[in-house]
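Interim report to the steering committee. The following record documents the input for DUF1795 domain-containing protein (303 residues).
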Amino acid sequence: MKIRLLVSILAFAQIVFAQTDKLSKVSGTKCSLVAPSGFVAATSFSGFQNIKNGASIVINELPTPYQSLVEGFTAEALKSKGMILVKKETIDFNGAKATLINLTQSANGTTYLKQMLVFGDTKNTVIVNGIYPEASKEIGAKIKEALLSTVYSNSQTDKPLEASTFGIDVKDTDFKLLKNMSGSFLYSTDGKFPSEKPTLIVGNSIAKIASQNQKKYSEERLKKLPGGELSVIKEIKEISVDNLKGYEIVADGKTKDDKPVLVYQVMLFNDKGDYYIIVGQAKDEFQKNLAAFQKITQTFKRM
């Protein structure tokens, strides 16, 4: 899902870009772009997808300074997340500096190519991520053209739930919805992300999974969370929510400075190879926060 540093919404100083007939607004964001031929608006994330060749363009907006985020995209950091850095360059983009990054990544036996356009300011950043199978590398030029067509508008409504096919109910809790990133909804109790306070992420799979052992897959997915390699599973059990079956995991995690953290993960699977995931983390009041995570999980519902 990310490389520890999370990406964020762009806030160019009151700059508003004009819409054109070719630009398509991206639901849940303040961005528009010219989608390549054959791409349609996605229903499970903010962006566009080409069902035929398995390609997608995903837009992420989150409150993280541009410079610190870009500096986090090192070959070593990316390798730790299963990605290989091919090229990273600074470009001029809409009157400011931006970064273009080319990556490769393997998943479920397929090698994917990624082109990422990263731009923003001292408070916020936007990542426009073009992803396509290596077997369809001929569309790479069109993907890059689409990324570079991206415009940002302060006047555009960016209601995160507009692009959603699922949701949770956090009323009567302290959690606040922040943003939609790659189809995942980010919540925290202090309105910040990353946050030292309890956080909650609710998302779904973009690609199909072939795993027949859902319990094992859930355990492996936990280890892929930021810092997940340090997590020790305390309990794993079957769970059923919204007529979907899956697994609930409660684990003891560690922060980078070796402090304990509660890690809560629920994965719910359908019969089409898709899954939904809920991840909660808290650094104190473990029992209270675990109860809150479990209560919110039971409100999960597909739209």
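The mean pLDDT is 86. The committee is asked to note this result when reviewing the revised timeline.
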